[in-house]
Amino acid sequence: MLRLVVLISGGGSNLRALLERCEDPAFPAHVVAVGADRDAEGLVHADEFGVPSFLVPFGHYATREVWGAALLETIRTWAPDLVILSGFMRLLPAAVVDALAPALLNTHPAHLPEFPGAHGVRDALAAGATETGASVIVVDHGTDSGPILAQERVPVLPGDTEAALHDRIKPVERRLLADVILDIAEGRIDLEELA
């Protein structure tokens, strides 16, 4: 049974989907803690599912590196097998990435390497793309540039708004993340080969 720590910054809709998936006794993972860099709305999902949560507020630390050290120390107390960035909108310091990767995963609402960064959906629309997608990657030192573990295309429909397109991408992200976790647990993905 894989131990997951999930980090969020916002509403936590992807977190909630993962918590629901972990309710299935046949799913080989469970969320042991949920962390945030701010007082995120999504922490209510952890409470609802009886999962401990923690807060390491970015603004309470003098530098990104000091914040990162505090975050890493807190994460390690939960002894996770995987750390999942789920709408976590803060760049992790290099030392944190080095300490956790390759067991540090992120979902991204684009078919990487297309449209990396914080506004993947908006950027796809602005580029006039006819399709975009969702990806699950290992976090590295770049911006959404780590090894791709799974991805799938999602069409851009005429008249799509950023919100409408993102709403169609999110279920794909959630499914891909659950599939990747399952593949890691069952040995079909070996993260150590990516180290």
Low-confidence sequence ranges: none
Report the strand count.
Answer: 7
Could you name the CATH homologous superfamily? Formyl transferase, N-terminal domain
- Give the overall form: globular
Strand content: 15-25%
Rounded to the nearest angstrom, the distance between the terminal CA atoms is 22 Å
Number of structural domains:
1
Q: How would you sum up this structure, described in words?
A:
- This protein is α/β, with parallel strands linked by helices.
- It has a single domain (2-194), classed as Rossmann fold (3-Layer(aba) Sandwich).
- Helices cover 34% and strands 22% of the residues.
- It contains six helices and seven strands.
- It has helices at residues 13-22, 43-48, 64-76, 94-100, 120-126, 162-185, and strands at residues 2-8, 29-36, 53-55, 82-85, 104-108, 131-138, 148-155.
- It has a seven-stranded mixed β-sheet.
- Strand 2, helix 2 (43-48) and strand 3 (53-55) form a beta-alpha-beta unit.
- Helix 1 packs parallel to helix 6 and helix 3 runs parallel beside helix 4 (94-100).
- The two termini are 22 Å apart.
- It is an enzyme of class 2 (transferase).
- One of its GO terms (biological process) is 'de novo' IMP biosynthetic process.
- N(1)-(5-phospho-beta-D-ribosyl)glycinamide binds at residues 12-14.
